[in-house]
Specification:
single chain, alpha+beta, STM4215-like, Pnp Oxidase, Chain A, 2 domains, 7-stranded antiparallel beta sheet, 4 helices, 17% helix, extended
Length: 284
């Protein structure tokens, strides 16, 4: 299981990879305060920013031999305001670092202390600011807070590893479902004890996808809109599904049930079904 200490270290390393030279020290549950300015020689001094990572809630579900868990944590960062600092500059600087890091770590593979690998996905809130305060040992400082929810699956396959392209254009989907439905023979067989057995003659492949409508049209979005408005059933499209780096399949498809949802001031969204199509050469 990925511990809070491991998450704190990952966050610390990620935040420290910034171009501004700010060094963060992220404590888990508690720790010793690092001075905001460290070093006797002014030219070599490092500027430290202390943070505290705490668990707000967690849930661990053993699934036979695997571990599935969720954990919501809160990161609080306290930034000391030096004489030369202005509140606006400090807020802009640290918010950019915090938001930039969490935006770039939506999915990552982490290893726990026993060597087990976990697929870890995260959802986060934008960094919020507190009020300027004065307290020992920080002195005058301002706080930032970020809430992060981690979903962890031991040796898991994350949804983000699936890439879907229509006619060579990647689709930025919110949900994607692959369904293969067998067609059973009407004649059933049994082994003499009344338990029926079936024969599967054919299967039908279907892809269901939901994606936001965007203003800047590309070939894929134009194809969806053209089908909705004009109902072009003759066009056969190419759908490519890639899972990770090593598995990829390409299919000839036509549009199935398709709609666009419009609701007040909400963003428009498409719900599209693709079904595998037979080409003329396959039908002869």
């Amino acid at each position: 299981m990925i511990t809070l200490q491991t998450l704190a270290k990952e966050i610390e390393n990620g935040l420290n990879n910034n171009v501004l030279g700010i060094q963060y020290k992220i404590h888990s549950d508690g720790g010793s305060y690092n001075k905001a300015l460290y070093g006797r020689v002014a030219a070599n001094r490092k500027r430290f920013t202390n943070g505290l990572l705490q668990v707000l809630s967690s849930s661990i579900v053993p699934v036979q031999s695997l571990i599935v868990a969720t954990q919501t944590v809160r990161l609080e960062v306290a930034v000391q305001l030096l004489d030369k600092d202005t509140e606006d500059s400090v807020i802009a600087m640290h918010r950019a670092i915090l938001d930039g890091y969490f935006q770039s770590t939506g999915v990552q593979m982490l290893t726990d202390e026993s060597g087990k690998q976990f697929s870890v996905s995260s959802a986060y809130s934008l960094a919020s600011t507190g009020t300027v305060q004065a307290a020992a040992p920080l002195g005058t400082h301002i706080t930032f807070a970020v809430n992060v929810t981690y979903s962890m699956v031991q040796n898991g396959l994350n949804s983000s590893e699936f890439k879907v392209s229509l006619d060579g254009v990647e689709l930025a989907y919110t949900t994607f479902t692959i369904v293969r439905t067998p067609s059973m023979d009407a004649s059933t067989y049994n082994g003499g004890n009344g338990a029926s057995k079936n024969v599967s003659n054919t299967t039908a492949l279907q892809f269901n996808i939901q994606l936001p409508a965007i203003v800047t049209q590309n070939d894929a979005q134009s194809a969806i809109m053209n089908f909705l408005l004009d109902g072009d059933m003759a066009a056969i499209h190419t759908l490519t599904v890639a899972m990770g780096e090593n598995v990829s399949r390409t299919y000839s498809v036509v549009f199935g049930d398709t709609n666009v949802s419009l609701d007040g001031i909400q963003n428009a969204g498409y719900t599209v079904t693709f079904v595998e199509a037979a080409t003329l050469t396959e039908g002869t």
